[in-house]
Specification:
The chain is an alpha/beta fold. The protein has 12 helices and 8 strands. The chain has one domain: Aldolase class I (TIM Barrel). An 8-stranded parallel beta barrel has the order 1-2-3-4-5-6-7-8, surrounded by 6 helices. The structure holds phosphoenolpyruvate (PEP). Phosphoenolpyruvate (PEP) binds next to strand 8.
């Protein structure tokens, strides 16, 4: 069965109430003009403060799903500033982004913690979007594939084949995030092919053929068509270009 493409917008730390409403309204209007049968799975990942509002605005719009940008894997308790899976599920959040390079680098999140989150997310019936990617230095020193293989192997530790098949991976070269400099589509396709080989080795070719692997890193309306034409790329995780409804809707169209 063909893998259904995904277009996921990671808002990061952007959008107040008014901006969040304008963006969600704009996306809903844009997709109302599209052929639903051809649409990719559309995901938006607002900040926690905009989750309630986004949930409320899209509650009758099955074509958009919600993601959280983070989660704490513990069920409840004394974790000041954190949000649990129960709280996210309460807002109908379906996906959780984990292992984003910003969280790995700025908040010192380890592969082990990311694995803990992945297991908790799947146990709750939600889907992790597991990010991986290399720095420019790693790319230039030729360790991209081994670095990513290690990140993915550790993130998927003790996760069943069935849960792995449901999960989503996002390959996001760190040097391409927010820089305007997207990875060459063929090179992104090659690297994602390597990630698929890692999944095949960990589980089976069948699971590798099922798991959806996105590309992220300065995806724009002008790059999406070439990216989506690559056989290994199942969609995009998009930061900057997801913040304006018209460009996000162009990205959705580019994946149709
Ligand atoms: C991201 O944050 O995951 C990302 C890919 O950002 P941008 O599209 O802005 O490069």
């Amino acid at each position: 069965m063909a893998r259904r493409p995904i277009i996921a917008g990671n808002w990061k730390m952007n959008n107040n109430k008014a901006q969040a409403k304008e963006l969600v309204d704009g996306i809903m209007y844009g997709i109302s003009q599209l052929d639903a049968s051809k649409m990719p799975e559309v995901i938006i990942a607002p900040t926690y403060t905009a989750l309630w509002q986004a949930y409320d605005l899209i509650k009758n719009e099955p074509k958009i799903a919600l993601a959280a940008q983070n989660v704490n894997p513990n069920p409840s308790g004394a974790y000041t500033g954190e949000v649990s899976l129960d709280m996210l599920a309460d807002f109908n959040v379906k996906f959780v982004i984990i292992g984003h390079s910003e969280r790995r680098q700025m908040f010192n999140e380890s592969d082990e913690f990311i694995n803990e989150k992945a297991k908790a997310i799947l146990a709750k019936g939600l889907i992790p979007i597991i990010c991986c990617g290399e720095t420019l230095e790693q790319r230039e020193s030729g360790v991209t594939d081994t670095h990513i293989a290690s990140q993915i192997t550790k993130a998927l530790k003790d996760i069943s084949a069935e849960d792995a098949a449901k999960s989503v991976i996002a390959y996001e070269p760190i040097w391409a995030i927010g820089t305007g400099k997207s990875c060459d589509a063929k090179e992104a396709n090659r690297t994602i092919g390597e990630i698929r080989k890692v999944v095949a080795k960990l589980y089976s070719q069948d699971i590798a053929d099922k798991i959806r692997i996105l590309y992220g890193g300065s995806v724009k309306p002008s790059t999406i068509v070439e990216q989506m034409a690559q056989p290994e790329i199942d969609g995009g995780l998009i930061g900057g270009a997801s913040l304006k409804a018209d460009s996000f809707v162009e990205l959705i169209k580019g994946a149709m």
